[in-house]
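Thread: Newbie trying to understand structure tokens

Hi all, I'm a second-year student working on a class project, and my supervisor (Dr. K.) asked me to get a predicted structure for one chain before our next meeting. I've only ever worked with sequences, so writing a 3D structure as a token string is new to me. If someone could post the tokens and maybe explain what I'm looking at, I'd be very grateful. Here's the chain:
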Amino acid sequence: LHVEIQIMGLSLAGSLSPKIPVLLFSEQEDSSPLSPGKPSIPLTPGGPVTPRVPCNPGPLRPTGPGKPCSPSSPLTPGGPAM
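---
Reply by user tm_fold:
Sure, no problem. This is what the structure looks like when written as tokens:
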């Protein structure tokens, strides 16, 4: 059934717009056994933690000694943006 849906979706969506097939694939991934791979997403929040490490050695950055390692400081290159 999944194969038929993909073929039908691709043929119909292909003529309508390429965005539709993407949605179909995303829905199938949710129901597919690939769902276990989602835990990798929670690991992304750990990214913001890495920018804090370089903040400790302030001397490395010219503005480091000027201000503390506060992530809210605007001097950090998009740190809070992460």
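A couple of things are worth pointing out once you decode it. Helices lie at 2-16, 19-31, 40-43, 49-55. The two ends are 40 Å apart (CA to CA). Feel free to ask follow-ups in this thread.
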